[in-house]
Design brief:
The two termini are 28 Å apart. The radius of gyration is 22 Å and the shape is globular. The protein folds into three domains: 260 residues, Rossmann fold (3-Layer(aba) Sandwich); 60 residues, no CATH class; 44 residues, no CATH class. The longest helix has 22 residues. The protein has 14 helices and ten strands. The chain has an eight-stranded mixed sheet, with helices on both faces. It is α/β, with parallel strands linked by helices. 39% of the residues lie in helices and 12% in strands.
């Protein structure tokens, strides 16, 4: 898939990856067709722990919906690299992540789209969801009075690192030993040295993998004081009080220029969420907290994605339905809800699927060559239905 790299933070040598894929209708031998578009709207992806460009892999499935040679293309997909991307997540915190996301958005508007009014929707995966809620619910620590405004936020696979760690602690004696050793080192180290003291990797790896991990980030992710005194990263634990949710989720929409409608897409079969946690109930608690004072709302397209692993990977029909149909369908509908420029006239009239099924002579052919986001989604959806053997059944 063709991409473009931008340096958005020269001092830290941080990059933006822009997807510039073309449709199957583009003729590379002549370079002819509709030409390469410069879309006005941006979906900016924020990865989780260990993620860097093209990780998780499903970001390319999302980008495939927006070929740049489609003449009416209004959306582009970009992926932001932060200091904490890849194996360096343990050296930085959410404050730095959010400052860098802000810098990336400012760069996009000043140097790529050349418009201060460019709509930007953030999409976070896993710990990237912690970045998103931190962006929306905390005040800026930079000289700027506010963060760049965004039009929306998509939270995909928001999970509690603390509950994932403790699930391992309770089920595996070696992980328990690792956790207790990390706590012992943290307790014996003066607080002022927590940010600069790295835990021995052979001690911490069973808790959070083989990556350098400062005491400060360990305490933020493991949050041993929770639920009464949550660490910076502890936004999504199921045992957090309503008061804590009100102080985090409840702040979404309270600042000028922040997203007023957000969407949650937890993975239904997330291997990093203990089986005892009711995901639907947890989603309802988040929704109630967001909407409590009327400043913001949770999109009607929010859903627990059935059969989805944490990164929605897999080649089975169920996995591809979760990734290509359920997740992408919600993303498209949400983008159209908060910004627009997704659904064409036919889809808005409810005719998109009928056209795609060949309800009229010539219409099916037009749909097969259409490179609009919705047409690409529909082709993939129908292909999966046919493979499943239930063609014509709406999922």
């Amino acid at each position: 898939m063709e991409t473009i790299l931008h340096i958005y933070h020269p001092k830290r040598n941080l990059l933006l990856l822009e997807y510039a894929n073309k449709s199957t209708n583009f003729d590379p031998s002549t370079g002819t067709g509709t030409g390469i578009q410069e879309p006005s709207n941006v979906l900016l992806f924020v990865g989780g722990l260990y993620d860097n460009f093209r990780s998780p892999a499903y970001i390319e499935d999302v980008a495939a919906l927006f070929p740049r040679d489609f003449e009416n293309q209004k959306w582009r997909v970009m992926h932001v690299q932060m200091s904490s991307s890849g194996r360096t997540f343990g050296l930085y915190d959410l404050d730095r992540d959010v400052d860098e996301i802000s810098t990336a958005i400012t760069y996009i508007r000043s140097s790529i789209t050349h418009s201060p009014d460019t709509p930007v929707v953030l999409m976070g995966h896993s710990t990237g969801c912690q970045d998103l809620i931190h962006y929306l619910s905390t005040s800026t620590s930079s000289p700027s009075p506010s963060r760049p405004r965004i039009s929306g936020a998509i939270f995909q696979a928001p999970v509690s690192d603390r509950e994932a760690i403790m699930d391992g602690v309770h089920s595996d004696p070696a992980t328990r030993q690792s956790y207790e050793a990390c706590l012992a080192i943290a307790t014996s180290t003066p607080t002022q040295h927590h940010a600069t003291t790295i835990l021995p990797i052979h001690v911490s790896k069973l808790c959070l993998g083989s990556a350098p991990l400062s005491i400060a980030r360990f305490l933020s992710l493991a949050s041993p004081g929770s639920p009464d005194s949550p660490g910076m990263d502890d936004y999504y634990s199921s045992d957090l009080s309503d008061a804590r949710l009100s102080d985090t989720f409840g702040r979404i929409g309270s600042s000028r220029g922040t997203a007023k409608t957000v969407m949650f897409l937890p993975s239904g079969s997330d291997e990093h969420v203990p089986m005892s946690i009711d995901k639907e109930f947890l989603l309802s608690r988040w929704k109630r907290a967001v909407e409590a004072d009327g400043a913001a709302s949770v999109s009607q397209y929010s859903r627990v994605i059935r059969n989805a692993l944490h990164d929605i990977s897999g080649s089975s029909i169920e996995a591809r339905t979760a990734r290509l149909v359920d997740m992408r369908g919600s993303v498209l509908r949400y983008l159209d809800e908060v910004v627009g420029d997704i659904l064409g006239d036919a889809e808005q009239r409810g005719q998109g699927e009928e056209i795609g099924k060949g309800g009229a002579d010539g219409a099916a052919t037009r749909h097969q060559t259409d490179s609009s986001p919705w047409a690409i989604y529909e082709r993939d959806r129908r292909a999966i239905e046919l493979e499943r053997g239930v063609s014509g059944v709406r999922l």
